[in-house]
Every structure is written in C-alpha cells, then in structure tokens.
C-alpha cells in the first residue's frame, strides 16, 4: 500500500481502495482508515433494480452506525450513493429499465476529508465496484463509481 502507512489516506481514496482490496490488504486498509479517524464498512449487493442497491447501502449505513435518522445525514448519504451510482451507470441512472444487471461491492467511509482533520467536519464517501451488463453471464464489464458529500 505504499505511503499509506506513513502519510494516511484521504476519505475518497480510503473508500475506493477499500472497495477494491480483499483479504489481508483489505484488513490492513480498514485498520489504517480507522487510525486516520474514519468509520468504515464494506458490503455487497446485486440487482437489476436501482432501488434495491440504494436500500442495501442505506440499510448497511444505518445498521453499522455510520449515519443516524437525521434528515441531513440521510440526505448526504443519498447524494453520495447517487453520485457513485451515476458513475457506474455512465450517466444513465437505471438498470432494469434498460435490461442491465449489477453485481457490486460497496464501501462506506465517514469522517474528515483528510486524515484526522476534525476541523473540516464530517463527510461521507460511497464507492461502488463490480460488474454490470446484460443479464447474461459473460456479458458484463467492470464499473467503478465514487460519491462524496458533507454531512
């Protein structure tokens, strides 16, 4: 992971690296992210229905204590998911209506934009990574999206 051990990692970079890494590298990145003042979570979701993707990420964020039920926090989360989702859909925000399916990993990272910078306030980042394509095995391709908003 290069200079991450020495220099820390920004909020968006933590979200993207977390969604891409697995195994020992994932565990090390989670530990380093927590040391940088972030709360982190990684999960997975697959669907042809965008509402199910949004719901899975929102449910995970609430269940893991990354957001509470205040409007401002839910609103920041929603827009972060929407930005990441927009990125993986190439500007066409929809799956089932255009016969695409998605198998995605997602990461949620909450904290300051830069490591241990509490003066900057709280932000939330969502990264999505996985495959998308026609609902036929072998017809998919990789996708990656990132959304960041202030809480």
From TrEMBL:
InterPro entries: Regulatory_HutP, Regulatory_HutP_sf. GO terms for molecular function: RNA binding. Gene3D superfamilies: Hut operon regulatory protein HutP. Keywords: Activator, RNA-binding, Transcription, Transcription regulation. Homohexamer. Antiterminator that binds to cis-acting regulatory sequences on the mRNA in the presence of histidine, thereby suppressing transcription termination and activating the hut operon for histidine utilization. This is Hut operon positive regulatory protein.
């Amino acid at each position: 992971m290069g200079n991450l051990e020495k220099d820390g990692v920004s909020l968006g970079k933590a979200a993207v690296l977390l969604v891409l890494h697995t195994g020992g590298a994932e565990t090390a990145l989670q530990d380093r992210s927590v040391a940088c003042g972030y709360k982190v979570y990684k999960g997975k979701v697959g669907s042809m229905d965008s509402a199910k993707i949004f719901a899975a990420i929102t449910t995970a964020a609430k269940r893991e204590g990354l957001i509470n039920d205040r409007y401002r926090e839910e609103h920041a989360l929603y827009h972060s998911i929407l930005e990441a989702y927009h990125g993986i859909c190439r500007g066409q925000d929809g799956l089932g209506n255009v016969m695409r399916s998605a198998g995605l990993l997602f990461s949620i990272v909450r904290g300051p934009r830069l490591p241990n910078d509490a003066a900057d306030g709280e932000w939330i980042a969502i990264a999505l990574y996985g495959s998308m394509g026609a609902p036929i095995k072998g017809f998919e391709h990789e996708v990656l999206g990132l959304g960041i908003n202030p809480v």
